[in-house]
Amino acid sequence: MENKQDKSQEEMVKEAVEEAKKNAQEAEETEAGTEEMAEEETEEKEAEETEAKTEESDKILGLSMGADDYISKPFRPDELVARVKSQLRRYMQFGGMNAAESNKEQIINGGLILDMKGKRMMVDGEPVKLTATEYKIVSLLMNNLGRVFSADEIYERVWNEEAYATENTVMVHIRRIREKIEIDAKNPRYLKVVWGIGYKIEKMD
């Protein structure tokens, strides 16, 4: 009877030892799996950071080499189309169409003389002091006499940014220019508003 009890106790101890070994092995496997997952997550994060840094470097390189814009992946097709249209619009309105005219050293229109080389303006033989922004606006309009430019078109060309709610900004500069080049700013001879459309410098005969 005692032998059976001893044997039973030995078996119980043996089973307990085996169970403890099994639990220890499972714990080691779980720990190893957790470490492996952590390593994979770290590698993925490092890969994403490297990719982001590479993309940033590519963007800087592209822009420094003369690119006008840059779009990152993934991108929406409608965003790409909008960006392309914006660049084409800028080129057609301010680039290719006006390249020949922009090579003139002087543009004379009535009593207005725009000295392209000296970057200055004369009105009836008298020099007019314009700010850099005012000069750019006058240059755009003088290079396209009689053509009406919307406030958005003027803003994109002069400020070199996408236009958004720019009417007041452009209007203020137009008013200041008019005060400098017109005898009667309320009844302008040159710099005129085409209501609901934009601004132009009237071409004089």
Q: What this model shows, in words?
A:
The protein is an alpha+beta fold and 205 residues long. It contains five helices and six strands, in the order H-H-E-E-E-E-H-H-H-E-E. The chain has helices spanning 2-64, 77-95, 132-142, 151-159, 167-181; strands at 106-109, 112-115, 120-123, 126-128, 191-194, 198-201. Strands 1-2-3-4 form a four-stranded antiparallel beta sheet, with helices on one face. Strands 5-6 form a two-stranded antiparallel ribbon. A hairpin with a 4-residue loop joins strand 2 and strand 3.
The amount of helix comes to 55-70%
Number of strands: 6
- Cα(first) to Cα(last) distance is 132 Å
Shape: rod-shaped
Please mark out the parts with pLDDT under 50 across 5 or more consecutive residues, or reply none: 94-102
Radius of gyration: 37 Å
Please state how the strands of the largest beta sheet are arranged side by side: 1-2-3-4
Estimated share of beta-strand residues: 5-15%
Largest sheet: 4 strands, antiparallel
Number of helices: 5
Instruction: Spell the H/E element sequence.
Output: HHEEEEHHHEE
